[in-house]
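Re: the request from the purification team.
They wanted to know what the chain is likely to look like in 3D before they choose a buffer screen. I agreed to run a prediction and write the result into the notebook, where they can find it.
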Amino acid sequence: MSPRAIAILPAYNEEQTIAKVVRGLREAAPGVERLVVTDGSRDGTVAQVTALGERHLELVCNVGYGRAVQAGLHYAMRHGYDVVVTIDSDGQHDPRDVSRLIDELSRTGADVVIGSRFVSTRSYRGPMGRQLGQLLFSLVTGLMGQRIYDTTSGLKAMSAHACRTILEGRFLDFHTEVLVRLRMLGFRIAEVPIDVHERSAGRSMYSFVSGLAYPIKTGLLVITGMIDALLRGKPK
């Protein structure tokens, strides 16, 4: 029996791309349900999602990517899904990769499968500060017994057990600190290579200033995640 799966799409001011992403998922992964989490969008994102007849959670204010994902995970766990996939709403991810990640989760028995931009190539580029931070925290994960090449990918497939454990902890970014915590608790994480398209519309949540601040902020979050795992977590 195929796992009951849902794709969580956090969306903040993505009126120009959300319809394309939703239609792509409908075509490429028809067996995967969808939930759009509109994160206090001030443009026409909610109207677009409503016109498409898509299930969605409308957050009344912008709480940030991590909290929007957290809201989606709570929904998925309350409604009994076996697998949760997160995918960005800006059109950079290929909807066809969603089924690939779910298949890999089942095939390998992993708890998390990351759609990785860097596991086989480093063709994707971002702000220099962010690139350096990604490399640094990729190396940090190696100290946990397994190097994760793309710690900030927004495309992930996760088992329900991993999702419940994530929700027991504290996180803000839903990236490196979550993966480090899961590794410390003995969860299995795999990566599959993906291609990522350049953003064609809308505005990235990452700016020059945030790119410079990223290594510091993420470092503090990783330390918090490690402490949380040591104090509150139990081995799987």
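For the purification team: Helices lie at 18-28, 45-52, 65-78, 96-108, 128-142, 160-168, 176-184, 208-232.
Please add any questions underneath this entry.
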